[in-house]
Description:
Elements: E1 2-5, H1 10-22, E2 27-31, E3 42-45, H2 51-58, E4 63-66, H3 74-95, E5 98-103, H4 126-143, E6 149-153, E7 156-158, H5 166-176, E8 182-184, E9 190-191, E10 193-195, H6 196-207, E11 216-218, E12 226-227, H7 228-239, E13 246-248, H8 250-256, H9 261-266, H10 282-287, H11 296-305
Parallel strand pairs: 1-2, 1-4, 2-3, 4-5, 5-6, 6-11, 7-10, 8-13
Antiparallel strand pairs: 9-12
Amino acid sequence: MQTVLGANGQIAVELTRELYRSHTHDIRLVSRHPQKVHDTDELVAADLTDAEATSRAVAGSEIAYLTVGLPLDTQLWEEQFPTMMRNVIDTCVEHGTTLVYFDNTYMYPGSTAPQTESTPFAPNGRKGRVRAEMTSMLLREMEAGRIDAVICRAPEFYGPGRTSSYTNTLVLDQIKAGKRPLVPVNADAVRSLIWTPDASRAMALIGNTPDAYGRTWHLPVDPHRLTYRQLIAVASEVTGRRIPFTVLPVAAFRLGSLVSQPLKEMSELLPRYRGDNVFDSSEFTRRFPDFAVTTYRDGIAQVLGESR
Length: 308
């Protein structure tokens, strides 16, 4: 049995498809309101902030994947995410279940230095501190030998379906709707973006590779990174039309945050859009050389070709 905790998000749905396609049909999906991806999926409704419910949801699982997400609400993150991580760790230890944790980069410095698996944590805001706390909690348990786990870290998403990153919502979804894309802060900074199906495929592969455990992996990105200006130029080629865009400066976000909670929540992340973002996934590429990474052009074409 392989169990996906936080099973309704885009990453989790694609992870479930990949597990079913390549690894096992014995899959359990856990969330507050889980929905089947395949007819054979087992559904368990559970709140991961409840220790007993978490234990019941994981019992009997060989591998658990923690992919749970929360709305971009700092207070909610501080109240719930560390509790969820504590409960999941304790549950996996209790049942002898290995843990695959899907992580992000919010705890990294918002600098232009390349990010590797050894980049030290230096969060510059409350959400980053929450993510650093969660990951550090798991790392301590791994180092103590209490749990067999692996951390799969990804940069900002872009992708099909319900992918809801800023690149999707501000740029690609705008283009798809025939509207002017809105570029956060800087159109000429290099971005490292991960195609959501690639993130899920890579996580399933790592989770089913026993010698990959006990460490952190950067999940694979196309190394031919683009700026937003270049990304929109590719979109222009794909659609066959010129696509003008608007750059939203930091001041615009600050003004908007006075009346918009989502823009207020984004303010912590804005320094990451000022300069180049170089997420290095070369260690994954060396370990799994046959893994085919989706190119930015292919990913952009797929998103823009989806029916609305």
